[in-house]
From TrEMBL:
Species lineage: Bacteria, Pseudomonadati, Pseudomonadota, Betaproteobacteria, Burkholderiales
Protein name: Glutathione S-transferase
Domain GST C-terminal, residue spans: 84-211
InterPro entries assigned: Glutathione-S-Trfase_C-like, Glutathione-S-Trfase_C_sf, Glutathione_S-Trfase, Glutathione_S-Trfase_N, GST_C, Thioredoxin-like_sf
Source superkingdom: Bacteria
SUPFAM superfamilies registered for this protein in UniProt: GST C-terminal domain-like, Thioredoxin-like
Organism: Paraburkholderia hiiakae
């Protein structure tokens, strides 16, 4: 399989973590959707990442569909989403919040990075941040023991950690281990897995994106 997208993309990282936790071999093609759209388009006509090319040449896009597919090709006891019942509902709820947090963070970053300052809408930026922080508070209130859905790591942990770590790079004064101690502890626990530690965005990539502390201390 080939995974298209850089670790800078939280949704690509979600898929990369999933592949590594499930010990599924893959080739990583870290093409950036904005900087290298023509390379991404070869796999993903809308120039969006992540895209996963399967061994038979078919391509899946959208991290939700991809992680669902990956769960379907591993034995039941390795799957990263509970199959049914209240645990599945809870996992879906938390994955939903974590993805929504990441969406708002991505929109906030797009506003900062792509739109010229004179055309930025302050209320939009503030709204994205407010919504993202509300979502992170929901995740912070979810009790991890030791994982969000109990004894086994799940997609809820993966996306919660991706969203928290990404937000803490972009708006470190607001999102940090003091304001979100449980999410910080969850991230620290997750980083014991190479699936998480090996998929952190390159520092160079982060610096080039201008996203480190992009809030300028706001
Ligand atoms: N819902 C999609 C979101 C994918 C997404 O937003 N990808 C971003 C990078 S993190 C992207 O490719 N943006 C460029 C674009 O949409 O034009 C998923 O879960 O995969």
């Amino acid at each position: 399989m080939k995974l298209v997208g850089p670790w800078l993309s939280g949704y690509t990282r979600r898929v990369g973590i999933t592949l590594r936790l499930l010990t599924l071999p893959f080739e990583h093609l870290p093409y950036h959707a904005y900087r290298e759209p023509e390379r991404v388009r070869v796999f993903s006509p809308m120039a969006r990442v992540p895209a996963l090319q399967l061994d038979d040449g078919q391509v899946l896009v959208d991290s939700h569909a991809i992680v669902d597919y990956l769960d379907s090709i591993v034995p039941a006891d390795q799957r990263l989403m509970p199959a049914s019942g209240p645990e599945r509902v809870r996992a879906m709820q938390l994955v939903g919040y974590a993805c929504a947090c990441y969406d708002k963070l991505a929109r906030y970053c797009d506003e900062l990075m792509l739109r010229p300052e004179a055309h930025r809408l302050a209320h939009l930026q503030a709204g994205y941040r407010e919504q993202m922080e509300s979502g992170l508070r929901v995740l912070e209130a979810a009790h991890a023991d030791p994982w969000l859905i109990g004894s086994r790591i799940s997609q809820a942990d993966i996306m919660a950690v991706v969203a928290f770590q990404s937000a803490s790079v972009v708006i470190p004064r607001t999102v940090n281990s003091e304001s979100f101690p449980r999410l910080a502890a969850l991230a620290q626990q997750a980083m014991q897995f190479t699936a998480f530690s090996s998929t952190l965005p390159d520092l160079e990539d982060l610096q080039a994106s201008g996203l480190i502390g992009a809030d300028n201390g706001i």
